[in-house]
Amino acid sequence: MIVAAGSVDGIAAALLANGLVLRGGFNFAPGETAPLGLSAGPAKAVLLVGQAGAAPWPHFLRWQEKQSRTIADPLDSWSREVIGAAAKAFGARAVSPSDRPYLPFQQWAMRAEGLKPSPLGILMHPRYGLWHAYRGALLFEVELPLQAAATSPHLCDACVEKPCLKSCPVDAYSAQGFTHQSCLAHVRGANGEPCRSSGCLDRNACPYGMDYRYPPEVQAFHMAAFADL
């Protein structure tokens, strides 16, 4: 069981060896409904695990090359393996955004890092922009020495032009929300090549966090997964 204050640093180091980073965390308030921890008691703390930019990509590719068969959702499988190993080492329960029933990952992330959604629904990070993701979380049955998230300006509030809502050829994103079927049909269709090979045009139009933008091959991987290509 994790008890030492320095253990959070140890978890961060273990994850960083695979390109993953701790994305903040918090202690559940007394009386708050919390998911179950490792021994089926209510969790008292959660640490979010994710990525900044494409740092995990080379680690994932090396893992994928060693697999003896094709695996459905390979990035999810890799993430579960890496985060699961950290959970085992530090006495936590590992959970994933794809677990059913779904856990409130976006709400956790906003609470842990003080972020708000962009017009695309992706949380806007003050440093990474839209180029980050959450791969899982660690649930602990003890409280952790965690500080409250710092408050940062929401970059989207200062963005007047909103290029993220003007670059999609089928206007999949708008102030009314995301039209999933329009996006999917375009990506799969004859004119969807720019999106298939280089990623979402709206996401790429965002001016923030450009140093962390995923390389084209990473964006193509995610787009293929989204469109089931």
UniProtKB/TrEMBL annotation:
InterPro entries: 4Fe4S_Fe-S-bd (IPR017896). It comes from the Bacteria. Residues 147-178 form the 4Fe-4S ferredoxin-type domain. This is 4Fe-4S ferredoxin-type domain-containing protein. It comes from Mesorhizobium calcicola.
